[in-house]
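Work Package 3 (structural annotation) set out to generate three-dimensional models for the target panel prioritized at the project kickoff. During this period the team completed the workflow that converts sequence records into discrete structure tokens, so that structures can be stored uniformly alongside our sequence database. As a representative example, we reproduce one entry of 293 residues exactly as it appears in the project archive.
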Amino acid sequence: MNKTQSFSSLHTHTTFCDGKDDIETMCRAAFEKKLCAIGLSAHAPITKKTGIESDWNLKDDKFEEYVEQVLAAKKRWQGKLEVLLGFEVDYIKGLRSALDSDITAVNPDYLIGSVHYLIPSNGAKPFTVDGHSEEFLQGLNEGFGGDAQALMHSYYDALAEMIALGGFEILGHADLIKKNSHGKNYWPEESELCRQKEIAHTTGEAGIIAEVNTGGINRKKINETYPSVTFLRFFRENNVPVIITADAHRAEHIDGNYDFAVQTLLSAGFSDHIIIFRKSDKKIICEKENLHN
């Protein structure tokens, strides 16, 4: 595939949250790689809304500065690179969603909806499914009594609730839960596949785009995309459009392993097109690009 005209990088993180490079450095990398667009998608703040302390989400008191700096980058790069204002918004039931007024008030170009946090029903401490393995195991034991299948269902329940609620354009790393469970057989594969089929159907009904995220490969955490080939086949069966993203936390990863993502999509049956984003007159224009170009 011809990166010069086709690829964007809409899932990126800068020093405003847990990224390692600033906005200008990320934009410059996208320009040098000849990408058609870059989207800045800071992890939306959660502490004020939820009471959960986080060292990787955008701080509440940095929210306005982040928006101002992305808008300034739009002006600096106008005519050279499409720069989009986005957020990756965690869905935390009853506490945080893409429909929250603080997010919608700044009129973002797009939003990524993701589930990182699980809130155990027994009152145990909230935890992230993709955190350190020690955090995952502690959450499993304290929040779910060691019942990994219950944890898995809790994750996909949250994902389904987020999709039904809506308010975002891109479904983030739909099987993120595998980061700490991949290859460990914590729960029956058949059970998870049933949930993934449900998620794919719901996503198709909602008209949401699913990202093919290479971030886990870029950071050497897993050896496949989020979602897996199998999950992507379910998306294909439900006519869910897809977009390749890098989940880049460093400039060097701005289009990391995109070629691998293309091969993954071809293996999943996406033989024709993927979706890219461009911005025009305050509307996201979805354009199809042939995978065989």
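The chain is about 40% helix and 20% strand.
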